Amino acid sequence: MGDLYALDFDGVICDSCGESSLSALKAAKVRWPGLFDGVDSTTEDWIVDQMHIVRPVVETGYENLLLVRLLLETRTPSIRKSSVAEGLAVEGILENWSKLKPIIMEEWGEDREALIDLFGKVRDDWLEQDFATWIGANRIYPGVSEALKFASSRVYIVTTKQSRFADALLRELAGVTIPPERIYGLRTGPKVEILKQLQKRPEHQGLKLHFVEDRLATLKNVIKEPELDNWNLYLGNWGYNTAQEKEEAAAIARIRVLQLSDFSKKLK
């Protein structure tokens, strides 16, 4: 009996936090040039530092833009347009992001699809103009590229990142080419629906199913679907999750909290 692994990308295979934070800052300057007019490099550095702390709340890349602006508003009262920014610290963002996000989207009059397109375009421009620096702002977690190269299991990437970026990083940093039909990126549908599609395929019948993810909320969504009861679920504890989420995951019978070294062994 063989194994099928569905792997999240950011936070499981690749630490992209440096790149996504810098791309979000670039995109935020394009989207809201007036707000960033007087922003000095010290404030920009502070925003990028904070972005590493709040990264666990991000489900889809465009949310990085919202976080960049919200962090700026928490620090600069004169430009505040959101009712939630005053007195808001990173702890509050980590705890309440799902409530904060719709409020700021409405108060700033933002559109999800437009932000997704802008974030993709800014990344494309950076990638085209300075490929080496864009690649260098990402890193593959230790041991993962070897594990992917020698994986005896059938591997799929299931990510909210745009497929072309995942593909470029796999090729350049991991030295791995995964066929495009095995990369499910942004706009291919919710992860629970992709897992349903994968398990229904005739060629996957009889395979043992594994899903590795670093977002606890995503794993909880899978647990809610009785149709997905056959998936073995893992929380990658090296990814973008908090100590509290690791603890919570450890108490859920369906979820196994996975170490990076164990993950690399499993794939091989």
TrEMBL record:
Record GO terms (molecular function): SNARE binding
Parts of the chain that traverse the membrane:
none
User: What InterPro entries does the entry give?
Assistant: HAD-like_sf, HAD_sf
PANTHER family to which the protein is assigned, alphabetical: OS07G0418000 PROTEIN (PTHR15157:SF25), UV RADIATION RESISTANCE-ASSOCIATED GENE PROTEIN (PTHR15157)
Organism from which the protein derives: Pisum sativum
Q: Which Gene3D superfamilies match?
A: HAD superfamily/HAD-like
Can you cite a GO biological process for this protein?
SNARE complex assembly
Q: Record's GO cellular component, any one?
A: endosome
What protein am I looking at? Answer: HAD-like domain-containing protein
